[in-house]
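Subject: sequence -> structure tokens, single chain

Hey, anyone have a minute? Need the predicted structure for the following. Not urgent.
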Amino acid sequence: MQKLHKSFNNFYFLAFDSAFYWVRSSTLESDVATAAGIKVSKVYESHKIPDDAVLCFNRFNITRYYQLFASFAAKLNIPMVFDIDDLFWDLPEFSQDFAKGGNSYISKVEKIIANCKMITTTQNYLKTEIEKRYPNKKVIIVPNAQPNWNAPRGAVLIANTDSFKFNNNDLSWFSEIFKKLINNGVPIQLIGSNSAITNQFGLSCYISKEMGYREYLQKVNLSHFKFGLIPVSNSSYADCKSAIKLNEFLANQIKVFASEIYPYQEFKESYPTINNLHLVSNTKESWSGVATEIAEEYSKNPELCQATLMDSNQRKLQLAGWKLVISELSKNPKNLSKNAYRKISIFNYLYLCQFSRLVRWTKFLLRPVKLLRAFFRG
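Reply:
Had a minute. Here:
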């Protein structure tokens, strides 16, 4: 036997691209999970399972493969979690859910649940019902929340603030400006390379996934941003850059506050009648004034700020839930069987590669037999 690993940061789960699983899948894959130190990987079949993996099941995992997979993992004492987001054992009469197939379906699901260390779920009422049905299982709430991919309409757009455009000295005080905006409920959309900011404020703003340039321009065009901030440190490097970002923002009627660097000064001189462009010197006081102006503008629309704060609070609740999951997994761990993860990976390979290949060859070899049978019957 070998000791169970203290750190569990690889969560393996099966997610379906269907309307029934979109919300829960986005919760499991969210930036909140990442902030909790969780690395999410989909579909056991496509990965070698590392030594610190937690296997996460849901009620869609009931094929023969998953039944065997869960049973073998339990024998190896590999930690498992089961996620429940509805009363699958007590569905309404009008439901078209395949879970209404009867006790056979429920027994398959509950066989896997029996081998899991804990159950995660979405809200308090459901937690209570799960605890009634499975009194010996620890149940932890990891609430659903809207992914922080898209800010509400009328948000502030910030793009590319990493050190190659905004050095560490400027970033230290700009972070305070950023925090001022967040504390006033201002919705902020980050696009591009912003790791220096997202490391501090990732759960309090909206972060677009990586995208191509065409998709980026479409997002700027369709999102109806109210303000755009373009902070760039003063340097000869910055002075050699183009003013393309100003074009991108101004073309979509976004009011822009940009650092007073040479290409932006030149742009302002070339188009003096553009009222939506305001150049800002790179000082804490100047940018703080910008933050105050923006916060005052959003104070006239409290509903928008409230929605932003609500999203932020939900993400914080998610984070607390994930941290509790990790904490519980570390309590009273069972000892792993020797080479447990190697064995489960070998099982995956043999079952999914060799067994499926055997099935294909068997079908191929039996094809002449079927043809002969059909011939003689005819």
